[in-house]
Write a structure and sequence with these properties.
The protein is an all-alpha fold. The protein contains seven helices and no strands.
């Protein structure tokens, strides 16, 4: 435990995680309020998942050393699972523009299998790099999907989402490369700040897409 921060172990990381949590819940609530739209229900769910993952992540970074080892391990695993769940939902979302009926059920089935696969993986691999290798390909699928939505349907909202995904990928690169601006503002903190911009762009894009 740091003598300088006896109450919060990594204050900046925890606070930026909690900011992501609050904004994601707000964005998710607004998006889910759009009725009779399968896309917005799924898209809004992605923000709720981001928020829950950030809540657990902030708690682990901020208070992990102060709670029991078992509790911290559970919180951290939940963080990884919700990050993985978010990536799965993001990858599923653009497919709704191209498929319907039984095709949608198949996509949900594939998403469920991916989540089960990741859960089994997380039982032995608990580093954040393990979830990064899982969600990056799914983020790329989502990016390509929304680019195709923009190209074929001309939806400006899809372009906003694609830009937001690119920003989020840049944020992930910053974290993996461990690029820090200051000893009190490390790569996790910079990752969170850049990710906030990406989340906003994705929310803005989703709101602009017509309900369907």
């Amino acid at each position: 435990m740091s003598d300088k921060h006896p109450h919060i172990y990594e204050p900046t990381t925890a606070i930026t995680d909690y900011i992501i949590c609050i904004l994601s819940f707000i964005f998710g609530w607004i998006t889910l309020s759009i009725q009779d739209s399968h896309f917005h229900q799924l898209w809004g769910t992605s923000f709720i998942l981001i928020g829950i993952g950030a809540l657990f992540g902030g708690t682990s970074h901020g208070f992990g050393p102060k709670i029991s080892e078992l509790s911290n391990a559970i919180i951290w695993r939940l963080t990884l699972i919700f990050v993985a769940s978010t990536a799965i939902v993001l990858a599923m979302s653009p497919t709704l523009f191209f498929i319907s009926g039984r095709g949608v059920n198949i996509i949900y089935g594939i998403g469920s299998l991916l989540l089960i696969t990741f859960y089994n993986k997380s039982r032995t691999q608990t580093s954040f790099s393990s979830v990064v290798t899982f969600y990056l390909p799914l983020m790329m699928i989502s990016l390509i999907g929304f680019i195709l939505v923009f190209v074929f349907f001309g939806l400006t909202g899809a372009l906003f989402i694609a830009i937001g995904l690119v920003v989020s990928l840049v944020a992930s690169w910053v974290q993996v490369a461990k690029i820090s601006l200051h000893k009190h503002f490390n790569y996790n903190d910079l990752f969170h700040v850049i990710q906030l911009l990406g989340i906003y762009l994705m929310y803005r894009g989703g709101i602009e897409i017509r309900p369907f």
